[in-house]
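Records of this kind hold a single protein each, on a pair of labelled lines. With that in mind, the following record should read easily:
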Amino acid sequence: MLEITDVYKRYCGKRALEGVSLCLGAGEIVGLFGENGAGKTTLLKCILGLLPYKGCITLDGQPITTDNIGRLSFATCEHSFFPGLTPLAHQEFYREHFPKWRGQRFDALMDFFELPKNKALRSFSTGQKNQFEVILALCQGADYILMDEPFAGNDIFNREDFYKVLLGILEPTETVFLSTHLLEEVNGFISRAVLLKEGKILGDVSTLELDEKGMNITDYVKQCYHYQADRVSRALGKLTGEEDGL
């Protein structure tokens, strides 16, 4: 279990995370949602030890150190690969450093995305780079796979098909923690939704609970954020009024 307990993070005195507590169990597919600046990326980076924080984050009761960090992987839109290396060179590097490297999964996903194996990553498009970043995270052999807006630059067909493939390849012990703005697209993919607002957890619910209430993730987020359905019409009304007064 990945357990986050009372985590705080500030940047130059400004709150980024405020008392965040959360548990992720084996085999869960959890969506992390929130507006820009809510703290999603900060939370993921704190889990990985990329940022200092106050609080406690443990993996099966143990602090996350060099001894167990290999059980976590990260797909980030900022990219963590070596741009001058080819995908095949990356595979050799990862095989040497991660004993549980999934070579068969790597080949299958490279074929699925139709990515060239012998070209340097710097020659890939933005969408292809993001696809490869996700492939590395999924093939490392980690138990907990963290993803931060991994599908930026990918067309809707690639994204929808990928969710289906991912559901088919994940093993019962693999946990996915996915930060994304694509609410409707992941509605049938995730099993749980966690909602952040201004660094605090605003909601945490299973999709089964939402189904029982006749709600989807978009409905839930709008409800938690007290979304005002008339905000567009009010804004247009003000703009029109200003124009009429000219």
User: Anything to note?
Assistant: The mean pLDDT is 88. The longest strand covers residues 14-24.
